[in-house]
Amino acid sequence: EAGVVQSPRYKIIEKKQPVAFWCNPISGHNTLYWYLQNLGQGPELLIRYENEEAVDDSQLPKDRFSAERLKGVDSTLKIQPAELGDSAVYLCASSHYTGELFFGEGSRLTVL
Amino acid sequence: GEDVEQSLFLSVREGDSSVINCTYTDSSSTYLYWYKQEPGAGLQLLTYIFSNMDMKQDQRLTVLLNKKDKHLSLRIADTQTGDSAIYFCAVNNAGNMLTFGGGTRLMVKP
Predict the structure, then answer these.
(1) Is the dihedral of CA B12, B91, B99, A46 positive or negative?
(2) Closest residue in chain B to residue A104, using alpha carbons only
(3) What is the mean pLDDT of residues B72-97?
(4) CA A26, CA B89: separation in Å to the nearest integer?
(5) What pLDDT digit, counting tens, does each position of A16-46 carry?
(6) CB-CB contact of A21 with A6 (8 Å)
(7) Using the beta-carbon criterion (under 8 Å), do A45 and B4 form an inter-chain contact?
(8) Nearest residue of A to residue B105 by CA position?
(9) Which tens digits make up the pLDDT trace of B37-66?
(10) What single-letter DSSP state applies at residue B25?
(11) Helix, strand or coil, per DSSP, at residue A58
(12) What is the DSSP letter of A62?
């Protein structure tokens, strides 16, 4: 069974540029999560989807971050414009309802 | 909100036991997890424990939970060099929302 797939694995951009990350969850998992992991820290939840509905986005900086999960499967996370402090790893995870979370390998963003 | 704390670093010799500790604040947490993260990789679930349990053993891994002190530990027996990684404690609250600790970097010396 394929795991959670994220792309790109690495992205380097200049500040003020836009960037987008894509996540394909495990087949059949209705719940999808985007986490932010800063260097040397644990992951912090940005947004959680149940099917196509964002049920918790309280930690998502809505002035520059946006996310969508059309059709309740794949999801994209966008930052526009990116700032230096956005350099981090963006992790996607999925679960079957409230079961075990399976994580992707993450997308590492470097903003110059 | 929930606060989860871990020590930053642990160094052990190969073959010794490793004990990684975690404290949390939300006594209503029902599931408590240990994740492993190797360099450049995502998080891998190692084990978890229900809040109504004191101990769970899974091969070389032993999880101890002290609910009164809100203290969780992970013991790795016969630690190997392949166990070198960052270990994260995570606790859930309502709606399967996980709060992670900052991670403990385990270094295993040959």
Answers:
(1) positive
(2) B42
(3) 91
(4) 23
(5) 999 999 999 999 999 999 999 998 899 999 9
(6) yes
(7) no
(8) A40
(9) 998 888 999 999 998 899 999 999 999 999
(10) S
(11) coil
(12) T
